[in-house]
Amino acid sequence: MPWANVRENIRLPLKLARMSKKDSQKLVQQTLELVGLKSFEENYPRQLSGGMKMRVSIARALVTQPNVLLMDEPFGALDEITRSKLNGDLLDLWLQHRWTVVFVTHNIYEAVYLSKHIYY
User: Fold this and answer.
1) CA distances (Å), 17 to each of 7, 24, 29, 61, 69, in order?
2) Model confidence at 119: pLDDT above 90
3) Cα 19 vs. chain centroid, distance in angstroms?
4) Domain 67-120 carries which CATH code?
């Protein structure tokens, strides 16, 4: 949502679930910290790099604290350096929280690096 700042972009699923702004603030703050965007919460998407925009998307998916995270080529449009950094960050998040992640990619390196199981 280019018209909304990072915080409001992340809060969107909670708003759609009719959670009050007051009740959702703590979850949004925790998620901002989780993905390393705490100091960018007032920025708008046009002010962010491609990698930071992807972190906002990941945060928006994580703010609802799902049991399963579905990711369909999330880093496909990013340059290799940013993609590699986000792969590492995603793996670190997984090591901390052990979510089930279904990750679709055409990148063999990415599949091997991020996966416990690979299906093709």
Assistant:
1) 16, 10, 18, 13, 18
2) no
3) 20
4) 3.40.50.300
